[in-house]
Amino acid sequence: MPVLEEIRRRGHEVVVRTLAGQVGLLHDLDFEAGAIDPAIERKEHADWRARTPVGALRDNLHVFFERARHDGPDLRRAIEEERPDALLVDINAWGAMAVAESSGMPWTTWCPYFLPTPSRDAPPFGLGLTPARGPLGRLRDRLLNPVLFGLYNRQVSELDAVRAERGAPPAGRIERAMLRAPLMLYMTAEPFEYPRSDWPPSVRMVGPGIWDPPAKSPAWLEGLDEPLVLVTCSTEFQNDGKLAQAALDAFAEEDVGVVVTTGGVDPSSFTPPPNAHVERFVPHRPVLERAACVVCHGGMGITQKALAAGVPVCVVPFGRDQLDVARHVQVAGAGTRLPASRLRPDRLRSAVREAMGKKASAERIASAFASAGGSRAATEALEKMLNGPADKPGRERARQPAE
User: Which domains are seen in the chain, by residue range?
Assistant: First the structure.
């Protein structure tokens, strides 16, 4: 949203295709918007049912492949309806990326998560490993990289089949398909992301896209004591409600205020103590202004939002990319990690207390995020690739749909 608002502020016309539940909000903000194909939203993750990490990975890939069969044609329809000059595509929309690539139009992706790409300077993606130290660490990475990315690419033929249907050449590897765009807006920054000497030239780190819908601070927030602890569950269901319950139990008798947002979990399944408030969704900005710590599953959105506010994080990862997010938080010294298998109220309470002492490092990350340039840097990179300087005489403004 910050990038789209900046693009529009500079005089470009923006058309958005997004989740059906967000179209009304975009209209309220005077964006032209429409809903994506409902079939895309109907395909939900069920990785939380998997018994092994490999099973969870297989389920996640299946979801992306199935969504790709719909999001590609959906973007093609949008192109036919809107006749845009350029495309900005979510890196999770694999079919839409294939359509963008085969369209012959200028196109850009944005990536809101850590990039699952190999690097000589970073540990293999997926296990939450610490960066290598010394010859043994580098040997570990050389041995594990082909194994882990081999697992990741077992089903690449499905992706290439989808790409072929959309007129795009085979990628051969999933991570290569993610890097096909001439420009990728990478929504993070070093040193939260591990520094690398081998970033692809298309990658432009611009810091996280921090945004909240316009909303007043809820009245009940003033009734909660400080220090305040914000606890969040995944917005895409992951069966992580036990994190919320552990936090309510951990701090029921403590001299803190607790705000729990349950996301994909039914909030009525919790009975909060007097010092806590439970909602499915709450605008995070006013809570973060008072928060001493954020407790979360390690979703990249809430983790970076907390760090951008200078608030340390206690991460309890359940799966997906969260093992890596938790490790990045720990390596950056901006919080703590507690494996979900060890989650208990007493352990969570200790991990949160430890995280509260890491505010200085969280503020260091916040400063790095701000220095990355945010929406201004992202829009300038777009304009440089697409049109040259925005104020160049005779240059037409670009109409840019985002999906």
Answer: 2-207+372-402 (3.40.50.2000), 219-368 (3.40.50.2000)
